[in-house]
Amino acid sequence: MSTNELHIVFDVPMQVGECPLWHPEEAALYWIDIHGCLVHRLDPVAGTHRFWPMPSEPGCIAWCASGGLIVALRSGLALLDTVTGELTPLADPPYDPAQARFNDGRCDIAGRLWVGTMYEPRDRPLGALFCVEHGSIRDSGNRVTVSNGVAFSPDNRTLYHADTTAHRITAYDFDAATGHIGSSRVFKQFSMDKSLNYGGRPDGAAVDSEGAYWCAMYEGGRILRLSPSGEILREIELPLRCPTMIAFGGRDLRTLYITSARHNRPQAELARFPLSGCVLALDVDVPGCPETAYLQ
What amino acid positions are annotated as catalytic residues? Predict the structure, then answer.
C-alpha cells in the first residue's frame, strides 16, 4: 500500500462529485455535482472557477470538438455552450427517467460517447451502456444495475465497463472503427461481503499510458491501479471514504484528479472525513491517456 502527497483542488464539497474531465485545449478541469445539478470548471493555474446549473442531474460530460460540452442529464442529452451558458437539447433519454438516469461515460477514439445508466431501484440489472454517435443513441446490450468505470485501453482494442452493484469490472473486445463490442471476460471481481475485509466497490475509472486501469473504490477510501490482467499494482489510501471517479490532467497528464461524494453518508463519517465531496489531486509517475472529444 502506498500514499502520495494529496492536495485539495476544490474545497467546497459536492453532494456527489463525479466525472472529472481534463480539457487538453483549455488546460482546464471540468467535473459535475450529480445531486447538486451543476457542471463545474476550474483553471488550476489561474485559480478561476465557473459553474452552470443544470435542469436535472448530470451523469457525465465530454468535451466537444466543435466547442463546449455534451452533458448526459437525467432528462436527456444536451450541448452546453460554456461561453454563453446556453443549454441546447440534443436527444431524449432512452429510458424512463422516473426509474433511471444517465451515469458514468467517456468518448472513444472515434468520437463516440459511451454512457451508461443506473437503474435506481437497484434490484435488477435494468441499466445499460449506450453509444451516442452524431446525436443518435443505440443500446449496446450490456446489462448492468449501476453502470460505471467506462474506459478504453491505449490500443483501443478493449472497452472496460463496471457494474458497481455487482462489484464487477468486465473487459470487452472492442473495434474502434465500427464501435462493435465483442466477447467479454471478467476483469476484476471484488468481494460483495461487507462483513469481511470490505474494500469498497468499483466506481469511475481511467486508463494510463501503460494500459493500467485506475479505479475509484466507493466506500473503500482508496484508489487502485490494476494491470491489464486485473492484478492490483498499487493502492492509494484517501482521506475520505467515497471516491467516485478519477481523471488524468495537467500539461503532462501526470496529475490524478479525484472526485468524491458526501450525499447520504453518516454524520460520523463526514466528521471523520471532512474532505468528503471535495476534489483532490496527486502527482503520479505514469501519464494518463488524453480524453477524446465528442464529434457531433
Answer: 203
Alpha helices per DSSP H over the chain: 267-272
pTM greater than the 0.85 cutoff:
yes
Contacts of 114 (CB under 8 A, 6+ apart): 105, 106, 107, 108, 129, 130, 131, 132, 140, 150, 159
In the chain the domains, ranked by start, together with CATH numbers, are: 7-283 (2.120.10.30)
Tens place of pLDDT per residue across the chain (296 aa):
344 689 999 999 999 999 999 999 999 999 999 999 999 999 999 999 999 999 999 999 999 999 999 999 999 999 999 999 999 999 999 999 999 999 999 999 999 999 999 999 999 999 999 999 999 999 998 899 999 999 999 999 999 999 999 999 999 999 999 999 999 999 999 999 988 889 999 999 999 999 999 999 999 999 999 999 999 999 999 999 999 999 999 999 999 999 999 999 999 999 999 999 999 999 999 999 999 999 99
